[in-house]
Amino acid sequence: MKPDGAPPYPEYEQLLAEARSRDTGFVDPARLRDVEQLVWRRGYDWCCSVLGKAPDRRTWRESLLLLAADRANIDPPLPAAIVEAREERARWEAEVEARRNAVLERDAARWAEARTGCTVDLEVRPNTKGRRYGTGYAVGALCHAVPVTNALSGSARRPRLHRAGRPLCETPNKARPVVLGEPTDQPATCVACLNRTPHIRPEEQDR
User: Most CB atoms closer than 10 Å: which of 26, 67, 125, 129?
Assistant: First the structure.
């Protein structure tokens, strides 16, 4: 009778019996090398099919089983549990990718909306010391909107200066300025920068 959890192919019991007969308790280093070469040659899926599980952590008897299966030149199908686990993993990865893409599309739409009517040349630069949080799916650096030339926001009587090459969210006297990377074609994702983008104007406009 097959042990619980044994792979379903018909040769299993015979191969297991052969492996048991060869399992003397002594692990021959030469045979161990043969097993490692076999795993590399036959491939991960074949080993999973023979053992009914991942081959990464196997007993010496299971290694002998692999050698016996190789001699018999059998090619059993993957166990249903492994197939189902891989299908479930693929579904999960597809769901995560779809949600990540939705976040990226939303980012692009917000950046395009923020720039509508903006007359200041802007570039987007990543924060090299900080990462983006709160999306659940989109990862990576927080990206800032950076004016190419000096810009202003606020009233003409009390304007706020946004220096060229610095994020719109950064105050002029910030003690620890944001460390920016090179310009990127990604959308700006800093909420403060997005909020300020529609309200900035070129510095020359107030002269």
Answer: 125
Place of tokens 């989109």: 138
Q: What is the pLDDT of residue 1?
A: 47
Query: What SS3 state is found at 41?
Result: helix
**C-alpha to C-alpha distance for 77 and 75, rounded to whole angstroms:** 7
Show the tokens assigned to 88: 């479930």
Percent with pLDDT over 90 in the chain: 53
Q: How many other CB atoms sit within 10 Å of the CB of residue 93?
A: 10
> Which amino acid makes up residue 205?
Q
Question: Rounded to an integer, what distance in angstroms lies between the CA atom of residue 140 and that of residue 181?
Answer: 13
Mean pLDDT of the chain: 87
Could you tell me where the beta strands, DSSP code E, fall in the chain? 122-131, 141-147, 151-154, 159-162, 201-202
Rounded to whole angstroms, how far apart are CA atoms 196 and 114? 8
Give just the sign of the alpha carbon dihedral 67, 71, 72, 74.
positive
Q: Are 148 and 123 in contact (CB under 8 A)?
A: yes
Q: Are 189 and 126 in contact (CB under 8 A)?
A: no
Measured distance CA(105)–CA(110) in Å, rounded: 9
